[in-house]
Amino acid sequence: MKRKLKTPLLIMICCLLGVGAGAGNVSAKRASDSYIYSYWGDAAAAPAAYVATEWISGSDLGTGAFQEPSDLHVTADHRVYVLDSGNNRIVVLDHDLKLVTAVDSFTREGEPDAFLQPQGIFVTDDGEVLVADTGNKRVVHLDSDFELIKIIDSPESELLQDSFRFEPVRIVMDHAQRIYVMAAGVFDGFMEFDAEGAFTSFIGANRVYIDPIEYFWKQISTKAQRSQMVMFTPTEFTNLDIDSEGFIYATNGDQWGNNIKKLNAQGSDILRRTGYSDPQGDILYVSSEGPSRLIDIDVADSEIYSVLDGKRGRVFTYNGDGHLMYVFGGLGNQLGQFHTPVAIDRIGEDFLVLDKALGEITVFRTTEYGRTLNEAVKSYYRGEEETAFALFNRTIAMNANLEFAYAGIGKALLRQGDYKGAMVHFKRSLDQKNYSKAFLLYRKEVMREHFPLIMTMLFLAGTGIFAVSRIRNVKERRKGASA
Amino acid sequence: MSREWIRFPLSLMVHPFEGYWDLKYDRSRNFTLIISFSVLFLVAVTNILRSQYSGFLVHVYNPESMNSVMEIVYVIVPLLFWCVANWSLTTLMDGEGKFVEIFTSTCFALLPLVIIQFPWIWLSNLVSLEETAFYYFSNSVAVLWFVYLLFVGNMTVHQFSPSKTIGIMLLTLVAMGFMAFISLLFFSLVQQIVAFISVIYQELVMRT
């Protein structure tokens, strides 16, 4: 009896699951918690571009659990370096996320030396490792075999006060071997060191935000009172990354200003902000929670960059023009959600997110939508408009809310000479500048086509008006004569 | 006579002093009122069409926030506020205008907004981004013309001196602000009273 009942029940469940799975394939209809921001600043539903596939913890790797890991770095050849701060070691994984080695000491002048609460790691394309050894107040530069190259500690300069304590937190190195260090308690920007490890200057200080009310109180208070008040200091940076051209991408804890910056060699901000809203994480939020607090940034190729919002655990990815591409992640207990995320990095197309409290790495893999969109943006960046055209067409078939994709299609159509079609697409992406370009060409085309007809009509109308007024004049004169 | 319906408001636009004098002393009340209401109607229609059909380069149309009823309200409510505030002030300050005259003069002053903006609804679809300067220019011309007509109308209707008219117009704006504030206050108070009564009613119902 029971068996009999079971089979139809099983079939029914299978059917229900099947319906669910079927709905899953039609990605636009799926109740996905992913979203993008529209031109109007509303959150529009979007299919998931990335889905979490697995969790990796230290014990899974066979090296013992991670303790408060604080940074990770992926090299160009897809080796993953995890900085396990609590255990004062570096754990190296290969492209399959299998353990290669774990390093907890290096030799310095014949003596073994170790890290103490290191916070930041950077690995160059040659495999040289830089560690911001925060507890020991120094930067350790190792070669690809973890042999010591140099140590940078207690930098000296007239720019630094005598009481200055060097506490490096995050670190990057460019192709010219210059080292940029984000140090705790430094408000003047990043510390730049030359190839020999000597401190040269600060770069890219944030601007001071002055609260008008606070400023008013400061003006009317005495010196003694003022010394007790909060000082107006620029916000500190929260993280940095460097792209292949040597531009530094940085995030800061600013609530009001631009919290993502792209710094050139002079330290000025050259991030393109031509999207519908400035890249800043969430633009809609509960006012009690406040805006996003970005704590990590990762630059991929083609100027695509991703930022991690520590407050809500979301990863936002933007293209070089500042258009939001996709959002994933969140705080919670499920796979694909975090407790206290601290670092993100791309391993090829996929994402690794490091969780400090759980000591785990979450692996996110692209969905078809994510892959198509990534490829579309990349080929658009490279100027391959035909490929971009086809790929953008596929992305909007999956997500009609992706407004900036229409501009990509419009540009390709403009190049092909389909001005009318280009206009339609630029209008959909609410891109007035390009719409105007397409419109001018379209107008010229129409005018050229119909020029004889238009001129004839104008001529006829002109003569008609002239004739009518002439006849009227004559009639009135006759009337006047008869009266 | 039938031509007068169109000719009079148009000639008032270009000869405001004569026109408003005519409006106050020579024309019949019905005649001016009917024209006033039709101008008001046209302004509302222009605004609705403008928000729906203006060119993409001058107006990004959001279908979700478009509301024709609100467009009408945006025309009528400020106009009534203006008239009431102006009337209240000028009766205290020796103005000779009646409320109807204030209303009709204000409505007549709105005419340039229709005459200039209405063709631009379609013209704006035929311009490029660089040429939109013309659109914004003619819009400002329309607004300036409107303000000028309002000024002349007010001056003629109340028989004020120019400087006094300017003062009264500024004061009217302040009074409009007051009125808005008081009506908001009134509404929120009424809301609270209603809420209070309904709570008491609920309390009584639940008790028994």
From TrEMBL, chain A:
TPR repeat extents: 403-436
Coiled coil start-end: none
Start-end of each NHL repeat: 62-96, 103-145
Transmembrane segment boundaries: 451-469
Annotated PROSITE patterns: NHL, TPR
UniProtKB keywords: Membrane, Repeat, Signal, TPR repeat, Transmembrane, Transmembrane helix
GO molecular function, one term: zinc ion binding
Listed name of the protein: Gluconolactonase
Organism: Paenibacillus campinasensis
Automatic annotation (TrEMBL), chain B:
Source organism superkingdom: Bacteria
Entry's Gene Ontology cellular component terms: membrane
Transmembrane regions listed in the UniProt entry: 31-49, 69-87, 99-122, 134-156, 168-201
Membrane topology according to the record: Multi-pass membrane protein
Main location: membrane
Pfam families membership: Yip1
Subcellular location field: Membrane
The UniProt record lists the keyword Transmembrane: yes
Residue stretches making up the Yip1 domain: 11-182
Recorded coiled-coil stretches: none
Endpoints of the signal sequence: none
Swiss-Prot/TrEMBL keywords: Membrane, Transmembrane, Transmembrane helix
Protein's name according to its UniProt entry: YIP1 family protein
